[in-house]
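agent> fetching stored inputs for the pyridoxine-5'-phosphate docking request
agent> found them:
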Amino acid sequence: MSKQSERALRLGVNIDHVATVRNARGGDTPDPVRAALMAQAAGADGITAHLREDRRHITDADIDGLMGGLTVPLNFEMAATTEMQQIALRHKPHAVCIVPERREERTTEGGLEVAREENRLAHFIAPLREAGCRVSIFIAADKRQIEAAHRIGAQVIELHTGAYCDAHAEGRFDDRDREFEALREMSGFAHDLGLEVHAGHGLTYDTVQPIAAFPEIKELNIGHFIIGEAIFRGLEPAIHEMRRLMDEARG
Ligand code: PXP
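agent> prediction call returned; pasting C-alpha cells
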C-alpha cells in the first residue's frame, strides 16, 4: 500500500476520461495507466479511478495496471455492490470511495443516500476497513447524510461539489452561493465529528479556489476538467496550474 502524502491539501487526479477517449475507438490508446503515471510525476498526490459496473471507461485491466504501477495512493471509486467489494478486497487499494451509480446517468449525479441504507452500508464497508482500506463516502452537503456516514464507520466523506460548479457555470449565482454556503458549513460539521473531509466533482480553475480555501478539506478529486485542459496545454501543465490555484487558495 502506498504512503499517504503529508500535504495539507492533496490533489487526487481522476483519470477516467482518458479511458473514455480510448474506449470511443475500442483500442489501447490513450492509456489511462500512462496518464496516471504522468499525473503522479506531475505532482498528483493520488490517482482516482471509478470502475463502473458497465465498465464504460475504466476496466479491470486498468485497475491491475494502476495497482501494479503507482507509487501514490489509488482511490478506487465504486458502487456498493458485492462484485465491486470483491474486487476491492482482492486489490486492497489505499482508499475506497463509495459512490451511487445508475446506468443511465452520464456521471455520478448525486451523493449516496447513506441515511436510507445505513445498515446495509455499515456491513458493506466493515470488511473493506478490516482489509486496511480508508473508506470514503461520496455525499451531498447534508447533515443527515454526514451523521449517517459517521455512524456506519466511514473514516472520510467526500462532499459532492457538482451542484455548486453547475450553478456557477450556468450563471445561477444565488444558487451557487447557497450551495457554497452548504459546503462550507458541512465541511466544518463533518470535521467536528472527526471525519476527514474531501470534495470533488465538476471543479475547474474557476471554481476550485473557494473550496480549496476551506481549512477542513484535506483532498480534492478532480478529473474531467484536468483531462480536457490537457488537450490544450498538456497534462503536466494542466495539473501544475490546478496545484498552483489550490496552494494559492490555502495561502
Ligand atoms: N469524486 C467523485 C466521487 C466522482 O465520482 C468524480 C467523478 O467521477 C470526481 C470526484 C471527479 O469529478 P470530475 O471528473 O467532474 O472532476
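agent> quick read of the result: Residues 14, 16, 50, 77, 97, 99, 107-108, 138, 158, 200-203, 221-225 surround pyridoxine-5'-phosphate (CB under 6 Å).
agent> awaiting further instructions
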